[in-house]
Amino acid sequence: MIKKITFSLFTLIILLIIFILYLNFYGVETNKFNNSIKNEIKSYDNRINIELKKVKLLLDIRKLSIKIETKEPIISFSKKKINIEKISSNISIRSYLSNNYGVKNLSIITKENQIKNLIYIARSINNTPGLLILSQMIKEGNIKLSFDIEFDDAGKIKSNYDINGIIENGKIQLLKNGIFEKVKLKVNYKENNIKFENIDFNIDNIKFNSDYVEIKRIKSDYFIKGNFKNNKSNINTKLLNLIKIKQNKYFKIDNSKFENIGIFSFKLNKNFKLKDLVINSQLKIYDLDYTKSIKDLEKYLPDYKNKINLKKINLNYNYDKKKINIKGDAIYKLNNNEDKIIFNIINFKDIYDFDLFIELDKNKFAINEISYFKDSIKNASLNIAGKYQKEKKLSFKKIEYNENENKIFIYNLELDSNNKIKNFKKASFNYLTTNNILNRFEITYYHPNYTITGKVYDAIKLIKDITDTETKTNFFDIFKEINSKININLKEVYLDNNNIAKNFNGSLKLKKNKIIDLDLYSNFSEDDNFFITIKMSDSNQKITTLYSDRAVPFVKNFKFIKGFESGVLDYNSRENNEIVKSHVKIYDFKVKEVPILAKLLTLASLQGIADLLTGEGIRFDEFEMNYSTKDKVITIDEIYSIGPSISILMEGYVQSNELISLRGTLVPATTINKLIGKIKVIGDILVGKKKGEGVFGVSFKIKGPPKNLKTTVNPIKTLTPRFITRTLEKIKKTN
What we know:
rod-shaped, alpha+beta, 735 residues, 43 strands, two-stranded antiparallel ribbon, Nuclear Transport Factor 2, Chain: A, 41-stranded mixed β-sheet, 17% helix
């Protein structure tokens, strides 16, 4: 009997052990616990409903717990359904027997579900700040998740939960303008920290990828950081907005491509306000066109044709605390000529600090104002550093130009909002001009005055501009308002290639860009001198005087005179109320070509004198002109010129480049000689002693636009009293 009982007990133990082992390794399936599981879940939150199939039970002897596992259940919460692949949980036998909360953990592996539904249910159960951030960021997409949740003895979720998932076809808004579409990634959510990994996404059909994006809670803020990169793609405006670059209408990005690698970080406060944004990106941009017409740029870059092509740009873009730093290099192209530019630009609010190094090896470069030109076969560089303050001023710390031995340096140049010069500290010039003259001088500013010193200055261009009747621009108009004294000390000043003013010294005073006092002295040789003065009279008249023993440098630039030789120039003028009255005298000179005069001589049948004009030239003893200027009209009161061959008396007016109207008298030398020979008997001169012998001359008129002048002549027998008077004055003065 005892043996039977012992055997039965042993068998029972063996069976129990086998059963326990079976339960431990294989478990059993049943639906008897379905209601209990439903009730257990509802005891936690009665809004949760679960549809279960068979439940599998597994015994864990070591932990004295039962693992409950079910496949393909459906969980619903407020009509939001979640398709589940598997749910498992461990129930503590000891806690269950003592009537405590027995569920120790919950593991859920879902099928693919809508992300919004999952976040909604998760927030409804336990609305953490991290879930709130996710709900704001994630707009669309499907996700497959695995949950690992632990409960305390009171049935509350512990903070060490772990959520992992894979997102497909997601739509995430990371920043205000940063809508990421077609998102594919892995996500891990643990203790209020979110990490996205292996991310692929599109921004306006541009494909990007990222190794990671992390969201961490720091006190009351959330710190978000990550990286991003892309292969060569087209540029679009959404991307520019995302990285805080404003689209400029003159930048044509239709055919532009870029490739990029970068990192970013920012904070979100509890009100989801972004702060401390940092973006660091290494960009390569290809074929970016700038098409804005830049005024007067073609004067300096002859190859510029209203377009700059940036063939390849390498740049590092950094955005940190509202400050943008862009530095890098680029290949720029002007009319198929390529050169390189290196740049560093810092932008904070409306202030831009810039440092540019521009190669000018393949492109032409010119500064016509100072007679400089570089062709496309000479290497050169331009280094510019300065600051631009929007709508206020542009300043240059330095402008340094180098081309072999040619150097131009300007320091501390300030411009106003209209690009007028406010002031500069120093300018140094050492270069070969287009006239093959080696300029060597510098301009220095000692508040409030300037000093110009040096060995050589090429003034040929300046004199041409001054004597150009079509240009009335004041050189000092490039300044905003200059009220200074300029001291000048130059060893040599080239007035033209043959006339050099030596020891060029003096000074001038300016008030509101206008000269109010000037004294300049120089000499061509021991016997040939030059000086110019400007003074203000007591009646506020500006009085200008100019004397030069060499008239050629000042006269040769007038378009209507060619082949001017020799001569002494004496000029003075008075300016009052914008009316300038001038008096010019030129002594002992010769001209070889004056088109208007040649035509007059031909029409007057004075071919012999006309031949002189085109041959050895016509000599004049004296030229005198009185005229006044107001606005664009020159009123000529009198032009009187006397010489061995001919003498001329003329008057009229010139209206800018629109109309010329002149009339006068031309008399050959034979008549003048008779006048001189018979000065004692004026009546004989006027009527003549012999039959047919009278005074001979030509009256003429010249009128029309400058390019289409019409000339008429009329032979005369009697000279005008005015001509006779002027001739007698001359004879008297000569005697």
